[in-house]
Amino acid sequence: MSSKWCFILLSFLNLSLGCNADYETVKKICEEQKTCSSCLQTQTCMWCAATSSIANYEPSIRCVARDKYKDPNVWCPVSQIINDSTVMIVKENLPLFATKNTTPMQIQPQVLRLRLRIGEEYNFTLKYSSAEDYPVDLYYLMDLSSSMSQYREDLSELGVDLASAMRHLTRNFRLGFGSFVDKVELPMTDTLPEKLKKPCNEDIVDCAPPYGYKHQMNLTEDADSFKTNVQAAPLSGNLDGPEGGFDAIMQAMVCTERIGWRKDGRHLLVFSTDANFHVAGDGRLAGIIEPNDCECHLDKEGTYTHSSLLDYPSISQINRIALKNNMNIIFAVPQDVSNTYQRLSECISGSAIGVIKKNDTVNVINLIQKEYEKLVDKVKMIDNAKKPITLRYFSKCLDKKGEVIERSECQGFHFGDIIQFEISIKATECPTNPENWQQLIEIKPQGLEDTLKIELELICDCPCDKSDHKAYVIKSEKCNYQGDLNCGICKCNDGFYGKHCICSGNETQSNVKDDCRASDNDNSDCSNHGTCQCGSCECEIRENPAENFSGKYCECNNFSCLRDNDQLCGGHGNCTCGTCVCMPGWSGLSCGCHDNSTCFPPGDNTKICSGHGTCDCGKCHCDNDVFYSGGYCQDCPTCSEVHCSKLKECVECYAFNTGSRSKNGTCERCYDDIEIVAKIDKVDVNEADYQLGYRVCHVPTDNGCSFDFKYRIESHRGDMPKSYVTVEENKKCPKAIPIFTVAISVIVSTVIIGFLILLIWKIVTMVHDQREYAKFERERAMAKWERGDNPLHKQATTTFSNPTFTESRQN
Ligand SMILES: *[C@@H]1O[C@H](CO)[C@@H](O)[C@H](O)[C@H]1NC(C)=O
Ligand SMILES: *[C@@H]1O[C@H](CO)[C@@H](O)[C@H](O)[C@H]1NC(C)=O
Ligand SMILES: *[C@@H]1O[C@H](CO)[C@@H](O)[C@H](O)[C@H]1NC(C)=O
Ligand SMILES: *[C@@H]1O[C@H](CO)[C@@H](O)[C@H](O)[C@H]1NC(C)=O
Ligand SMILES: *[C@@H]1O[C@H](CO)[C@@H](O)[C@H](O)[C@H]1NC(C)=O
Ligand SMILES: *[C@@H]1O[C@H](CO)[C@@H](O)[C@H](O)[C@H]1NC(C)=O
Ligand SMILES: *[C@@H]1O[C@H](CO)[C@@H](O)[C@H](O)[C@H]1NC(C)=O
Ligand SMILES: *[C@@H]1O[C@H](CO)[C@@H](O)[C@H](O)[C@H]1NC(C)=O
Ligand SMILES: *[C@@H]1O[C@H](CO)[C@@H](O)[C@H](O)[C@H]1NC(C)=O
Ligand SMILES: *[C@@H]1O[C@H](CO)[C@@H](O)[C@H](O)[C@H]1NC(C)=O
After folding, report:
1. Which residues belong to any copy of the Integrin beta subunit cytoplasmic domain (predicted)?
2. Whose CA is nearest to atom 9 of ligand 7?
3. Using CB atoms within 10 A as the burial measure, which of 205, 286, 313, 725 is most buried?
4. CA–CA separation, 453 vs 113, rounded Å?
């Protein structure tokens, strides 16, 4: 349960402290550090200790992020940079080995020296291998109150069996024995004189006077002597239920030399009782108030001498000593008290519990064997690191292809297997007490003596901070003789403050601080770009002379304005407190815009963008870009009526040397490309030309003539458009009319025409008359018979004939 909590706590710590802060924040945090030590205590920062006597310049920011400058020399002379970083030196690195009668080496490396930056994680590898025939010491601690008599017999037999059973596991096995009863005081023991002599019941023959704890047999390889010793150990008795086993456990654990515990071995302490135990505080019942001192108090005979002087140890004392001395306690108890001991075992690290039965040594041996195997079968790395130093263990354990996961415990391995632990060490802050800046961290497998010692030195201060450093100047001139110059800065004496200890008074007074802050919400002086100097801001000086901070609180600067074309304020303005003040003729946030003057086409009385667009940032944007184009929206390649009249004058001048542009044989302001040809194709019929942009103009001139030309306008954005004109070499003029000739010819022609008309009329009438006459004649001739007289009619005339002329007449 507790380990689970520890894990949760650890993961939480990692979350809150291990995450790398955003890079910008790191940079800022560095720059906020005002002393060399606090700079080095901040992750990834480095300090410049230059003073003007050593270097010809001093940086205004002394603490910066390591990678702020590609070439740190621009910030600080390299020799003056204090940039301590994590270094590890392996001091002892013997290979793993295990041979009998030599000290086995189960851990590699053995000694490391580590200088560690705060906040930096350092990883190293530790190898562990469980040695075969690793020394095992087993001390049997037995309750010899009379109730245990039935177990004593068994136990005496146990020794040999246990030794032979253990020799299967390790050939390097020792066995020892001790016994306990209880404190010889009321109410623990009956202090009646006869009871003090013989506290047991009548049926027990060998009954010794009561005692607290007695060490009976040194740890030895001789299992037979175990049997004799146990048999020789007399029973005794006490009064109350619980026994004084804790006194015995404590003595057995702390009297290492007397008992013969080997330093580099596994230590098993088998504690066998059938009763409950007394704990710290119970001694008061007998008037013993002195707490247990966890020291060894055995006399020559091996008897505990302070039984009546010191109280019983507490459970936590037992746990602590068990951890320290690598004791694995095995509680071997009968069923009826096993619950109590189960709970006790949970409180003592590395302990276990097993149930024994009467007349059953096999059970005890199995129990011990099992516990031993459990111990050897797993390895758990423990360490003595305390906050703020944290160690994390990562391992694949035995799974060669497996994942490296965070764990400090591996299970299921055998002798000879090698396990690698990746150990990550990190200190989150400097301990407040400088004594703790150097620590000895010990990492070891639980229950074993082998340790990896890390001589850890936390990098918490700068060498130049120490008054014996060669660059340390006491009462320096630079510090107004009121402070010490160290690591490049002044450490002012009491009553003075400021960068050069010029200000007198008390810096911590809040009003002084307030004068350097624009508002109460600010939590740093001078907007973080200067130092508060006796209540006013002294802005920091940039390395780049073209950049400076200004303003009462250094809140302004002249280098963080918008850029245009890679130039501050487009090169057309001054950067004032973060905004661009543009030069006349320029506008825009970054002064990148010309004003409207560049939108007027050349010439007089022109309109902005030729009236066909708007001026935006000094450039014309044409209203209808299908029609209008060109830098001033002056072009409309498809608007021929516009171009015909525009081009007309120059064309006329060039081709015919007439027109308003024609001055003294030259054409004024005519730049078009004009070619004269005999005859132009009419583009209307020439589709290809039309597609190329050719248009035809037919324009009249002032003197009544007219001419034709063909043009094409080429315009590239920004340039003046260029016109290509082809003109017909001849004007079309009406011929001059001679008035006299015209008049004569008119008269003549009129006369002739009149004459002709008369003639024609005459002829027509003559022909008509003749035809009429002929017709009359014909009709007359034909109408002969029709002229027969009406018989009724009597001619009024009378005809008389000349008789001489009769032959020509028929009647
Ligand atoms: C500072 O130390 C770090 C880590 O050792 C190194 O990478 C860096 O180059 C050092 N910088 C300077 C300026 O010495
Ligand atoms: C240390 O090891 C852990 C686990 O393998 C890894 O997450 C971490 O990034 C390592 N740290 C360094 C500085 O290599
Ligand atoms: C047990 O060890 C102690 C200390 O090492 C020694 O003085 C004593 O003689 C030993 N006892 C026996 C019986 O070997
Ligand atoms: C213990 O068991 C053995 C046989 O295993 C038996 O002979 C002996 O009488 C038993 N002793 C007791 C006290 O029960
Ligand atoms: C400055 O003020 C603080 C608290 O206001 C006080 O503890 C300290 O002694 C003062 N120092 C001097 C030199 O007046
Ligand atoms: C910023 O101010 C400094 C000092 O007044 C000056 O030399 C520099 O030219 C200024 N830079 C700009 C971009 O105005
Ligand atoms: C910084 O520049 C501003 C304007 O460019 C100027 O007013 C100010 O005096 C300068 N400050 C320093 C310390 O040169
Ligand atoms: C920019 O600064 C220069 C020098 O300080 C000054 O002569 C000029 O008038 C300033 N221009 C504007 C637009 O403020
Ligand atoms: C430039 O011309 C635009 C219209 O094209 C007008 O809105 C703007 O106010 C003018 N800017 C200046 C500085 O004259
Ligand atoms: C016209 O040209 C002639 C010579 O080419 C020159 O002498 C005369 O001054 C010019 N007149 C004008 C008004 O340019």
Report:
1. 762-808
2. 550
3. 313
4. 8
E strands, 414-482, where? 418-427, 438-445, 452-459
**Residues 695-709: pLDDT tens digits?**
788 888 877 788 888
Assess whether the C-beta atom of 220 lies below 6 angstroms from ligand 3. no
Rounded CA-CA distance 504/513 in Å is 14
Which atom of ligand 9 is the closest one to the Cα of 587?
13
pLDDT tens column, 610-636: 777 888 877 888 876 666 777 777 777
Q: What are the structural domains, with CATH classification, of the chain?
A: 1-83 (no CATH), 87-131+384-459 (2.60.40.1510), 136-380 (3.40.50.410), 563-594 (2.10.25.10), 640-728 (4.10.1240)
Report the residue among 218, 255, 256 best suited for mutation to probe ligand 3: largest number of ligand atoms under 8 A from its CB: 218
Residue whose C-alpha is closest to residue 712's, from 668, 675, 660, 670 = 675
Q: Are 425 and 457 in contact, with CB atoms under 8 Å apart?
A: no
For residues 101 and 444, is the Cβ–Cβ distance under 8 A? no
Rounded CA separation 537/531 (Å): 6
Q: Please name which ligand lies nearest the alpha carbon of 556.
A: 7
Closest CA to 239 of 307, 331, 333, 147: 147
Going through 569-638 in order, the beta strands assigned E by DSSP cover: 573-576, 579-582, 586-587, 593-594, 613-616, 619-622
Q: Which residue has the tokens 């815009």?
A: 593
* Among candidate residues 393, 376, 210, 369, the one with its CA nearest the CA of residue 286: 210
